[in-house]
User: Fold this.
Amino acid sequence: MHENLNYYKAEELYNIKLHGRMDPDSKLIALLSNNQGIEMNITGTELWLDIEADFSFMEPWAAIELNNVLISRFMVNKGKHDICLFRGISSGRTMRVKFYRELQAMTEDPDSRILIKGLWTDGLFMAPPYYDHKLEFIGDSITSGEGTYGAKSDEDWTSYCMSYSKTYANLTCKALNAECRVISQGGWGIYSGWDNDRRHIISKYYEKQCGLAAGEENKKYGSDKDHDFASFIPDAIIVNLGTNDASGFNQPPFIDPDTKEVYKLRKNDDGTYLEEDCESIIQATVDFIKLIRKNNPTSHIVWLYGMLGYDLSLILSDAVKRYINETGDNNIKYLMLPSINKDTVGAREHPGYESHKIAAGILTDYLKSYFLQS
Amino acid sequence: MHENLNYYKAEELYNIKLHGRMDPDSKLIALLSNNQGIEMNITGTELWLDIEADFSFMEPWAAIELNNVLISRFMVNKGKHDICLFRGISSGRTMRVKFYRELQAMTEDPDSRILIKGLWTDGLFMAPPYYDHKLEFIGDSITSGEGTYGAKSDEDWTSYCMSYSKTYANLTCKALNAECRVISQGGWGIYSGWDNDRRHIISKYYEKQCGLAAGEENKKYGSDKDHDFASFIPDAIIVNLGTNDASGFNQPPFIDPDTKEVYKLRKNDDGTYLEEDCESIIQATVDFIKLIRKNNPTSHIVWLYGMLGYDLSLILSDAVKRYINETGDNNIKYLMLPSINKDTVGAREHPGYESHKIAAGILTDYLKSYFLQS
Amino acid sequence: MHENLNYYKAEELYNIKLHGRMDPDSKLIALLSNNQGIEMNITGTELWLDIEADFSFMEPWAAIELNNVLISRFMVNKGKHDICLFRGISSGRTMRVKFYRELQAMTEDPDSRILIKGLWTDGLFMAPPYYDHKLEFIGDSITSGEGTYGAKSDEDWTSYCMSYSKTYANLTCKALNAECRVISQGGWGIYSGWDNDRRHIISKYYEKQCGLAAGEENKKYGSDKDHDFASFIPDAIIVNLGTNDASGFNQPPFIDPDTKEVYKLRKNDDGTYLEEDCESIIQATVDFIKLIRKNNPTSHIVWLYGMLGYDLSLILSDAVKRYINETGDNNIKYLMLPSINKDTVGAREHPGYESHKIAAGILTDYLKSYFLQS
Amino acid sequence: MHENLNYYKAEELYNIKLHGRMDPDSKLIALLSNNQGIEMNITGTELWLDIEADFSFMEPWAAIELNNVLISRFMVNKGKHDICLFRGISSGRTMRVKFYRELQAMTEDPDSRILIKGLWTDGLFMAPPYYDHKLEFIGDSITSGEGTYGAKSDEDWTSYCMSYSKTYANLTCKALNAECRVISQGGWGIYSGWDNDRRHIISKYYEKQCGLAAGEENKKYGSDKDHDFASFIPDAIIVNLGTNDASGFNQPPFIDPDTKEVYKLRKNDDGTYLEEDCESIIQATVDFIKLIRKNNPTSHIVWLYGMLGYDLSLILSDAVKRYINETGDNNIKYLMLPSINKDTVGAREHPGYESHKIAAGILTDYLKSYFLQS
Assistant:
């Protein structure tokens, strides 16, 4: 097999665009998080990946783009695989190829991982695709594309329902020819997870290379290293968080298994949110924005909210305003997106592809106009 | 002419739905403002209106709907006219007919007016159309439909560019089967008009019957009477203001011709808005919401913003939040709408029909879900 | 009135684009048929038409376009009227203005007519709009826009339901920047009208200037003069006929009031069409194409069919093929258009605006590609 | 692996819907052609297929639907594979699952094959999905979905560009809840292949079970057996052929390698088609329809044409009409579909997904109305 092809170890590859925060010291290319992957412009008639994958209960999914268009998307099972990215291409033609992980980093499954060990090809690696912008997306299940695949009736929390390929993040980046990095985790929030679990907040791992990819094994691939923010300076950072914090008000209390502390976002008798808890969310939001700003002094920040309801909107806009007032930093915007309706909902009562297309349209318009002015 | 038809004086009409705030004491039906009009279910083969119109420089436009669908839209010139709403209809059929003013109330042209004096028909007046909801819209040129008609290249400020027929207000009301009242004025704001003229704020006339219809003559038709808020209790009041206040920061100072006071919304050297002026807008917004609430204790209030840019969004959301904090009244929502882009812009760089359709979709979804819960 | 404006008699006008087949000898501009009208590029702040209209039972409707966009559409009543096309325009600006008849020529109402006697303006007539192509449309109620206005529930045969403004003819011509002439009559066919009345066939009047505008009075405006085909050489002639011939098979016999002859398109017992009657339609179709070709030696001919069902499609395509075989003339195409469905149907179970948009898209694509090749 | 799952050999499976013409005597389920596959309603938490695949140069692709929605699509490489159709599903839930071949039968690659040998699951096989209709599609590259995947710039003839998932055939069947069988081959025609190779005509293999799957090995799976037409009686048979016959007129002559005969569809000097060759196509079309009718006495036949240009339309409609005239059989319809434009074209200048959606809309409307009447 592959007898007329050359084998290149991952560490030997050149002219490769690596997507996502990756450990420069790793010999293998570890796809631990959504949109982590490799991309190249390559001649040759065939291209195969040499990969090894694992998972405990949430199997990773991957996708293949040829010439910037999705042509394949599939589950990656445990073990070693040869994955053919293309074959039967005319000799001499240059193909743009991208292979990337669809599934978010799995905090709950430390084994969910795709390792690229090398590749076989008879082609040459040309200069990789050039991007006009760099964007970073920070979010929850919406940004993890939960619901972008699957039937409206699907209820199970499964890998196939999640994607990068059909998210507003991908659509926006395609429209702007932007390189994209995503840090997102379904169920997580700013101050609290959907179930009042306050350990599930994205800020905790934002400064790590890939902190949402849990477990000892992933540390081998630099998951818990400090991220080198100088290595990727986003033109804009898009945060789409708050949906799970809103959920906490409607969920039962959560007892921290370690500290036995009881966490609960509380409502008043009239159904409104307890002021004190709103304050906690606002403070956590301000703090998270400061954390982002500290690490990204020049990036425009866009806070998005609304695709799954508007409940927390005034709390989030208040937080953004307070951040501006406290710091004098105006390089930030708060935008509301339309909530799902019966036509735009996807699987698991999450935003479907139609909802993501609308969100991407609004965000793209905004960023285009921002980039024009700046 | 009209020899086989009966003439009904305006004051004699029964089974008529009057749209807009109208003076119950007036013998004539005065259409002074957008969507003011009459609607009925009527049998008969013909229906003609007996009207008299006037204007100084902004001629009124009117529209006709048959069976809830727009079939005609036209300029109404000075003088007396017989306007045929339909003819050639089969005897015995019931037609739903609406005749309404397209043009906003003209603060700058006190003569802009259509008077319905009576009508000719051979039909019978059946029970008028029933509406499931009552909505009130308060706004500026966006809500006055400026740009919903005309070519993208049109630049003159003319009556034909404005409408009720193609606004998000009308589209939302059609989708919800809601009766609609509109109080809107191009160029006006919450704290300041587009040109820093602080006299041009909607709150000033909100409690009048039709205060935006200026002039002595219009007073004959009750324009400056106090509005009887008990006579029309909206399920929701939609405010779409702020666009012109934002404009003030970019415009030269305005000198009040009477007081010689100089008005100007100011920027800091770095281009941001002066905190003190933002505070003034916030305070004016809070005050206006309180005024609306005072007169409409039960109505849900929705503040919309964004169709012409997001510049003032955090100031407006802050005002809404402060209102809630100060009053404990949570029966209010702040929603952002997508700004125009090259596909959705209309005439005079204002939102076009496509933009209004998108806005109506988002507002309709929101109100549907609000009505379901309440 | 009009005191600062100059009056121009119709016969004195220059730099005017006249739409539709018109009598060069007429002192008045007579709008007897759909899309007959005038268009100009004009400076000035105001423009008024001096018109006189009449009808017996089907009142004419008219439309106004400013800068190539529809802004008004309305019934024109009997008598003399001043119609304002625009006012309040900045001095020095050039406006493109079109005023045209919406309603088809009325064979059944010889009085249905709009006469333009002159106009008032303070502007100058600039070079009129330039068109890249000339197109002629020949059709029935579909091409007369029946159903493009009005509610789906509307059933009466009224003028307001018909238009040129929302037809595939207008949409196609706008997309191609083509000058448009229309010869169409609801209910008429190639060999037979919808009710088996064989007098109602378009070919009968094709060589007349405006033969479908019946009556003695219209002759004053040249309606029955021979059309000078050299005066307007279409790049393409689009025929959309056959729908009413198909209807004849399902309708009762028609007795010619003059000859007492009985006309009926007949079915076999199994519901299929009688071969002999199909032959008659085919022969009439071939003859009509020959008539068109005789008068338009160079024009590409496109026969359209299908918007109201496909029943006669094979008969029409057969006729087109026979025409080619008999004459060797290949400068002709047969195209099927999608039939209406519940989303695209308009008033009176005729194609609605959505259906016309789809038809225009297909025709525009075809003509674009034809014009590219030729 | 699969330790808690039961293994079922293909021959033991029950409650399985087999898609496509398959050999009832085969112990393995051989997917030789597009949309051949298996479908079931199954409980259980996991489902794996035991497959073995092969190809020489055109690798097969497959797709997975869960609950009637596409969730995965991928290349199937040579050799034995465990393919997971789903995992991680809640115990007790019933999932509708379909696994099918995307790639057409490959006349040029007799090794292109997916064999299902069995499956592992912990679930129970419930009654399989019920379909309201049975449809058969006969076509060329259009029906083989060539161009439905891939970038517009893609030029190579590769497996990934072809699909069943995004074809009008699949979309129509989903809209009508119809079971679908497809017999299609890129480049083939009625009388001649695209390159004038007259051996490449679909009729030759229509009566075989899966004759387009060439080669000795495929015979093991019944490919060259006579198809039992009684086993699947289509409500309608849709033929979409003619595009390649049209191409022959523009291609160089083809020399039959066996007989050395020279094949060429010829043009006259003026660029029109030679009458004699048109006749040959017409005759071949009539003969093919007769062949279809012979085997399917009750099925409605719909001949489609136009997605890649209208050149042969009058020849095909003529053939359909002649068939009717010769046989008196009216249970057949000829429909034209809109040709691609710049927005609807896909890869390899073939119809893209947008074009297939339009075609499916027109065909679905037609069949719905046919089914209503019949």
